[in-house]
Design brief:
The protein is α+β, with helices and mostly antiparallel strands and 373 residues long. The chain contains eleven helices and 13 strands.
Length: 373
């Protein structure tokens, strides 16, 4: 098998951002409006009143201070509470392909590669805006890449699972280089009227290039020593939006069709699973957590990452060991660990070990153990 390398990465960041204060002020105004409009049902016990929130609560509960968003218009309007995205014609580049293309071009430049060097494109993310044609094939066309492309959805582990598939292609010699793109356009799936989840997500796009060690020409590249994945079924993080609603006569945009979770259960169950996963991955190489120079962890919740690092190291990891990006990017679904990698990998020295690890709905956990070339 060929040695497979991550040779470049790209990050596209939206121009719009929403602070906790902006988001909470809008939500509280909406709660007041909702409670007034539904006063009779609330007073009779038929409905529950919407509680207020605070920016301090959000930051303490998550570590998030702000989030980037593809389109800010509409989100803070208490009579809309969702982004206002104009519909695009079938012959126009889709929104998700647009942001994925931006990240892909940056990843190609980082890897010193052109479209002619790429044999496959994988779009791996939490949601795709349509079922077909694949967003990956749309980006393939826009880039002018020969070969093939496909989409895959593994919630917040999509990026690492996508890199696993790319690793296998290059290792087997079925592709010279693979472009893995994570266009996380999550904001349309957020229930901005739900106090417990409206602050969690942000939009972003990331991409990485994986290729054989024989063709690497970039300045910062990482040998992939191995990959590891696990899944365990859970209903604690769920989104029921889908085409089947057309036949069930349910509200296609009801609360259960958007992102919803049992946050406390997720925290309690996923943290030990992730810590065990990383421990076993390292042990397969006769390594321990203290051998790692850098942890590029999934960016969902600062308290989760703190607990995981304590389980592994017996103490909190420093921000140098485990960089934090969710304070400004929020939870960007599968892209979080790739954002952290993109922004915090150039300072590592040859021979340093690092791990990219994601965890999310499914449950699903994916990791890549890498070493700086």
């Amino acid at each position: 098998m060929q040695q497979v390398v991550i040779s470049g990465s790209g990050l596209w960041t939206p121009k719009h951002s929403i602070s906790n204060e902006e988001l909470i002020n809008s939500y509280n105004d909406y709660a007041d409006y909702y409670n007034e409009q539904n006063k009779t049902q609330i007073d009779s016990g038929q409905l529950s009143a919407k509680p207020h929130s605070s920016a301090e609560f959000v930051e303490k509960a998550s570590g998030i201070k702000s989030r980037y968003i593809f389109e800010k218009k509409g989100v803070l309007d208490i009579h809309r509470m969702r982004p206002l995205l104009p519909c695009r014609a079938d012959n126009e580049l889709s929104q998700q392909a647009e942001i994925g293309l931006e990240a892909a071009q940056k990843a190609l430049a980082s890897a010193n590669k052109t479209a002619a060097d790429i044999d496959a494109i994988i779009v791996a993310c939490a949601y795709t805006q349509r079922s077909y044609p694949a967003i990956a094939i749309e980006i393939q066309e826009a880039l002018g890449v020969k070969g093939f492309g496909f989409d895959m959805l593994v919630a917040c582990s999509a990026a690492t699972f996508g890199m696993h598939r790319a690793y296998e292609m290059v290792a087997a010699g079925t592709a010279r280089a693979v472009l893995v793109i994570n266009p996380e356009l999550v904001s349309p799936q957020i229930d901005y009227t739900d106090r417990d989840s409206h602050f969690i997500f942000g939009d972003v796009a990331t991409a990485v290039v994986l290729e054989s060690a024989e063709t690497v020409s970039s300045e910062h590249a990482y040998n992939i020593l191995s990959t590891r994945a696990m899944t365990q079924y859970s209903n604690n993080i769920r989104s029921n939006f889908g085409y089947i609603t057309h036949a069930t006569d349910e509200d296609p945009y009801g609360p259960d069709k958007l992102f919803h979770q049992e946050g406390r259960k997720v925290f309690k169950e996923v943290c030990p699973l992730a810590a065990q996963h990383i421990t076993e991955h390292l042990a397969a190489h006769e390594l321990v957590p203290q051998d790692l120079r850098r942890w590029w962890l999934h960016q969902a919740n600062i308290n989760m990452n703190t607990l995981i690092s304590k389980r592994l190291l017996g103490r909190e990891a420093t921000t140098d060991e485990a960089p934090v990006v969710l304070d400004t990017y929020a939870n960007t679904a599968s892209a979080g660990s790739v954002i952290a990698f993109n922004l915090h990998n150039h300072d590592l020295q040859r021979g340093d070990y690092g791990i990219l690890c994601s965890f999310g709905a499914g449950y699903s956990i994916g990791s890549l153990l890498v070493q700086k070339r």
